[in-house]
């Protein structure tokens, strides 16, 4: 099995450096929790993954995550403005993101081993004025251990007016 083969490398990886998923939305996989549960508890601090919190998740997911012992999770967020958020994240609904985010933070406040929260925001013309306040909000009110601002390369599928 692919997961079992990958997990064999955990003893050799530094804390927070085992990319469980960083290139797509891992919470879309129905066996995410089962896959991570295969990692021995003593190696969970090596694992992180990235989520956009765009898919409605059950309460059990947030409770499990708060007790998981993972090193961190990255949460993608570009805006707290619902209309801009939905424009920047096609197919996503801000209401669902916000509900998930609130459930995540409530669970982490109660959990026995919550991961650190790292936030990733992409900087575009559409949201760059909001970024300083967003960073402050994430640090002061949303348990941010780290906030990273990234930018994209010029690529044809992103309109110049959006970049």
Q: What are the main properties of this structure?
A:
163 residues; alpha/beta; TIM Barrel; 5-stranded parallel β-sheet; 34% helix; globular; Molybdenum cofactor biosynthesis protein A; rSAM_sf; Aldolase_TIM
Describe this structure in words.
The chain is an alpha/beta fold and 163 residues long. The protein has a single domain (2-150), classed as TIM Barrel. The protein has six helices and five strands, in the order αβαβαβααβαβ. A five-stranded parallel β-sheet has the order 1-2-3-4-5, covered by helices on one side. The longest helix has 17 residues, at 94-110. The model has no long low-confidence stretch (mean pLDDT 92).
Please list the strands of the largest sheet in the order they lie side by side.
1-2-3-4-5
Specify the CATH homologous superfamily: Aldolase class I
Q: What is the name of the CATH topology?
A: TIM Barrel
Helical run tally: 6
Q: What class would the helix/strand composition place it in? A: alpha/beta
Largest sheet report: 5 strands, parallel
Order of helical and strand elements: HEHEHEHHEHE
**Alpha carbon gap, first and last residue:** 41 Å
Sheet-strand content, in percent, reads: 15-25%
In helices, the fraction of residues equals 25-40%
Rg from alpha-carbon coordinates: 16 Å
């Amino acid at each position: 099995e692919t997961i079992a083969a990958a997990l064999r490398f955990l003893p050799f990886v530094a804390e927070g450096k085992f990319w469980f998923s960083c290139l797509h939305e891992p919470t879309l996989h129905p066996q995410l929790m089962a896959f991570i549960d295969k990692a021995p508890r003593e190696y969970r601090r090596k694992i992180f993954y990235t989520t956009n919190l765009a898919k409605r998740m059950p309460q059990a997911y947030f409770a499990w995550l708060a007790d998981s012992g993972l090193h961190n999770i990255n949460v993608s967020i570009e805006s707290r403005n619902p209309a801009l958020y939905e424009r920047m994240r096609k197919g996503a609904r801000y209401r669902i993101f916000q509900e998930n985010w609130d459930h995540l933070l409530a669970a982490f406040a109660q959990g026995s081993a919550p991961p650190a929260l790292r936030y990733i925001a992409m900087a575009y013309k559409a949201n760059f004025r909001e970024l300083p306040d967003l960073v402050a909000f994430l640090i002061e009110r949303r348990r941010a251990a780290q906030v990273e601002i990234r930018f994209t390369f010029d690529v044809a599928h992103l309109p110049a007016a959006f970049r």
